[in-house]
Amino acid sequence: MGSFASPDVTLALMRCTGYVDMLPTDTKMKRFSKLRCAVPVLVFAMALPALPSCGGAPDSARTAQRHLVRGDYPAATAAAERSIAKHPKDPTSWRVRIRSAMAQGELALAAEHYQEWKTLHGGHDRTTYRLMAVSTLWQGMQVPAPEIISRTIHIIASNNVEKLASEVRDALGNDSDLVAASAAVALLRSHPAAPHLATELLASASPRVRALVVAGIGKKIGRKALGDLLPALSDVDPLVRRAAVSAIASWKNKKDAARLISIAASDTDGQVRSRALRGLLAKGGDGVVALAQAALDDSYLGAQLAGLALLEKFSESDAIERAKVLVNQPHVGLAMRAAVILYKNDGVAQNQAIAKAFASPDWSSRAAALNTAAEVMSEADAAALAKQGLADVHEDVRIAAARLLIRLGDVDAGRKALARALGSNQLAPRLAAATELARMGDAAAIALLGQLARSGNAEQRQAALGAHKTAKVLSDGLVAALGDENIDVRLAAADALLFL
Q: Please, which residues have CB within 8 angstroms of residue 136's CB and are 6 or more apart in sequence?
C-alpha cells in the first residue's frame, strides 16, 4: 500500500502543530525515509515535576532517598528501614522503601508495604499510591511486548503523566509500528518529529496502526489535517474508515456534511454508515431527511437508530409518522426509541409498547423496557413495573429494576435491591450492582470492588479495576493490584489510580 501523505501534506500537518519552523532547513522540503532510525537531533524537553520534596524529612530519610536516586536499591531499602525504625511515620522513608521494592521487582511486597504505611498514616496516601502507579507505568514501558507498551503509552497520555515524557519520546524510534504510532499520537502536539512520523505510519501495513493514527490526528489536529485523513475514508479496512469518519463527524465545521451524507449512503460497513449519520446530527445538510428515511431500512441496527435520531431532529413530523410504525416492530431497541418520540410528541403514555417488551422471553428486552419506562409512562406505572422487575428470574433485569426505582426517587428500595445482587454467584451482575452502589458511597460495595480486584482470573480482575474508575472510588484492593502478577492488571490499576 502506498503512502497516504505527500511531503506537502506532511508539512501542512507540521504547520498545524506549529513545529515546521523548528526543523532543520534540510528536513523542511523532504520526508524522513527512515524517521525511526534517524529522528532529527532536536531536544524535546517537557518540563518534568520534581520528586516529592524531602523538606522536613529526617537525615536518615534523605540518605535513603539518595541511594534510591543512584539506583542502589538494596542500600536504599536498608536505609529506609533504619529510618522507619527511628521515624515510623515519616512519609519519605516509606516511599523510598516502597519504590525500592518495586524497582527490585518485589511488587507484591511493595503493595504490602503500602498497606502498612496506610495503617500508620491513618488512611490512603495519594502521593504515595500515585508514585507507585507511575513506577508501574515506567515498568510497562520496559516490557518487550508492543501491545503492553502501546497500552502503557495510552495510559500515560490520557493521564498526562509528564514524568514519563522521555520514555514516550524514546518510543518514537521503536521498531514496532504499533508502539511508534502510539508514541507519535501521544506527542503529536509536543514533539517536532511526531507529526511526520504519524503521517508516515498512515501507510503502515497494519489497519490497527492506521486507525490509531487517523483517530489521533483527527482529535488533536482537527480539520486542519483534513488532507491527511481523506484517503483513510476509502481505506480497504473498515477499522480505518470508522476512525476517519468518527474524526470528521466530531468536527463542528458544517462543510463536511456533504461528505458524510455520501459516506452514510454508500459505505459497505454498518458502523461507518452509523457514525456518518450520527455526525450529521450537528451538521445537517441538503438531502439529510431523505437519507434518514432511507437509513431506517438499513441492515445495520445502529444505522437505523441513527437515522431515526436524524429524522427526529430535522423533520419531526416525519419522525412521528415513522415512529407509529416502528413502535410495533420486533427489535426492542428501535421500538423503545420510537415510543420515546411518540410520548414526547403528545404525552400519551406508551404502556402497550413497554408491556410488549417486558413480556419478551429475552431478558435484554425486559431490561430495555425498564430502562425506557421512566421516559414514556406515568411515574406510578413505571414504579409498578419496577416492582415487577425486582421479581424477574434474571439478575440483570432485577438490577435494571433497581436503577429505575432509584431514578424515580425510591432510593432505599433501589439500594436494597442492588445490595441483594452483591451476593450473586455471577460476576457481571455482582459487578454492576457494586458499581452502582459504590457511586453512591456504599462502603460494602467499595470493599467488594476491592475484593474482586484481587480474585478471579486476570480478565475479571481488570473488570473490577475498571469499575473502580467508573465509580470513581478507591479501595485497598485497587492499590494492592499494583502488586498483581499480571502486567495487564497492574496497568489497569495504575490507570484507575491516576484517574481518581
A: 102, 482, 490, 491, 493, 494
* Distance between CA atoms of residues 188 and 127, nearest Å: 29
* Final residue before a domain boundary, out of 349, 375, 404: 404
- Alpha helical stretches, state H, 254-300: 257-266, 270-279, 288-295
For residues 437 and 368, membership in a common domain is answered with no
Q: Are residues 487 and 434 in the same domain?
A: yes
Assigned C-alpha cell, 357: 417488551
Same domain, 394 and 458: no
| CATH number where 128 lies | 1.25.40
User: Does 361 fall in a domain?
Assistant: yes
For residue 125, the 8-state DSSP code is -
Question: So what's the pLDDT on residue 52?
Answer: 57
pLDDT for res 55: 60
How far apart CA 300 and CA 305 sit, in angstroms, is 9
CA distance 447 to 438: 9
Q: Would residue 168 count as lying in a domain?
A: no
Residue 431 sits in the same domain as residue 383: no
Report the distance separating Cα 356 and Cα 339, nearest Å: 12
Quote the pLDDT of residue 253: 87
Residue 286 identity (one-letter amino acid): D
Pick the closest to residue 350 from 360, 338, 361 (CA basis).
Answer: 338
**Domain end among 76, 104, 139:** 139
What's the gap between Cα 449 and its chain centre? 19
Per-residue model confidence (pLDDT) at position 12: 42
Averaged over successive runs of 10 residues, the pLDDT of the chain (500 residues) comes to: 34 41 33 38 30 72 95 96 96 97 96 97 97 97 97 98 96 97 97 95 98 97 93 98 97 92 97 98 93 97 97 96 94 96 96 97 98 98 98 97 98 97 93 97 97 94 97 98 97 98
The whole model's pTM is what?
A: 0.87
CA–CA separation, 214 vs 229, rounded Å?
Answer: 6
- Rounded Cα–Cα distance for residues 454 and 459 (Å): 11
Q: Which of 372, 360, 298 is nearest to 333 (CA)?
A: 372
328/372 Cα distance (integer angstroms): 15
The count of domains in the chain is 3
Query: Is residue 303 domain-resident?
Result: no
- In degrees, to the nearest 5, what angle opens at C-alpha 199 toward C-alphas 176 and 278? 105
Q: What is the pLDDT of residue 43?
A: 28
How far is the CA of 397 from the CAs of 375, 389, 394, 428, 449, in angstroms? 18, 6, 5, 12, 21
Range of the domain at 96: 60-139
State the cell numbers at 70: 543512584
Return the pLDDT at 139.
96
Asked if the structure places residue 208 within a domain, the reply is no
